[in-house]
Amino acid sequence: MSSGVYTCGGCGAHLSVAQMRGTDCPYCRTAFPHHARAIEHAALVQQVMAQNMAAVTPWMVPAAPAAAHQLQAVVDQIHHAHETARRTTNRIALAIAVTVAASVFGTILCAVFFG
Ligand SMILES: [Zn+2]
Q1: Confidence band of 13 (pLDDT split at 50, 70, 90)
Q2: C-alpha 75 – ligand 1 centre gap (Å)
Q3: Could you read off the pLDDT of 53-102 as tens digits, one per residue?
Q4: Four-residue CA torsion sign, 89, 91, 95, 98
Q5: 37: CA distance to ligand 1 center in Å?
Q6: Burial track 41-74 (b if 16+ CB lie within 10 A, e otherwise)
Q7: pLDDT of residue 61
Q8: H helices of 28-63, where?
Q9: Residues 72, 75, 81, 83: what is their CA dihedral angle, to the nearest 10 degrees?
Q10: Radius of gyration of the chain measured on its C-alpha atoms
């Protein structure tokens, strides 16, 4: 009884519809032509979609995480620079205050002792 609806191009075996639901011949593992075309088509679609994504939204390509990391590093640097500048300004203000206070104190001392 020959129930084969398809003849394998690899080994010539007659394959049933159930066997044709697979991706390749169960006897010689030759990929079915329709399945091979489906794989090629899927790969082509993925390629075109990746190209369109890269062209329209550059930040969505796989390199995006690295770019985001670099951006975060720059933001951290700016934040750090602001912190350093703020602390430096505080030190300068403190130095001026100490200088002025010492100057005033010295003037008062002079006035007290020599005035
Ligand atoms: Zn075969």
Answers
A1: very high
A2: 60
A3: 778 776 665 655 666 777 778 778 878 888 888 888 888 888 888 888 88
A4: positive
A5: 17
A6: eeeeeeeeeeeeeeeeeeeeeeeeeeeeeeeeee
A7: 59
A8: 33-56
A9: -90
A10: 39
Measured in Å, residue 51 CA sits from the centre of ligand 1 at 37
Q: What are the tens digits of pLDDT across the range 100-109?
A: 888 888 888 7
42 CA → ligand 1 middle, Å:
24
Domains in the chain: boundaries: 5-60, 65-115
Residue for token digits 């329709």?
A: 34
Give the position of tokens 């090629």. Answer: 40
AA letter at 21: R
